[in-house]
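Hello, quick one for you while I still have it in my head. My current little project is about how a certain protein chain folds up. You're getting the sequence in one-letter code plus the fold written as tokens. Would you mind checking whether the tokens look sensible for this chain? Here's the protein in full, and shout if anything looks odd to you:
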Amino acid sequence: MRRLLGAAIVLALALPAAAADKLRAGILPFDVVSVDGAADAASRAMAKLVRMEMIKNSKLTPELLTVAPGTKTPISAEMASTLGKQANVAVVIIGTVMEASSEQSTHSADTGSIMSGLGIGGRVDKSTAKVSLHVDLVNPASGEIADSFDVEGKASEMGLGGDFSTTLGGFDTGNTSWEKTPMGKALQDAAKKLTEQVAKRASKFSAP
């Protein structure tokens, strides 16, 4: 009984310490001006997608940061630093979508079987989506960009694909069908890689 009680006390003491070790990361709406047709809703949805991936990571505690309506992105490091201090985060993520493209190709099918993406006359449609992100990490303590990196997500599937804004719109409304599209998979891949890169750099940022 004493051993069990002792173990419970040790576990209770360890849990707050583990939570405190997580890096608090502030995520700004992404700059999506390079993507045709992308609007403010897509920039916020991209930030939410990154937050969802960060929640799965054991080293990060994500916090969505908001900016005043009409604010042009990407915002300055000084403004990001101010928002980071207000939110009490150790690092602020300024993300830019450099590319979000989807290509469609059609090939002749050599099989008579019925399969997803099989078109009229034995054609197979294949969609390939690519998402490239540039990320600046701002340290609120110094007010400067402490690090920068790029990540890329890519996915291919048989069948028709969706575009950037439509896919993020589905994610934002809770429609899970976006996850199965090439663009959806590419976005998730890019968000996951972004999360991994931030986690690798966690030691550069001290708790606020």
The longest strand covers residues 91-108. The helical segments are 2-20, 40-55, 77-87, 164-172, 182-200. The two ends are 40 Å apart (CA to CA).
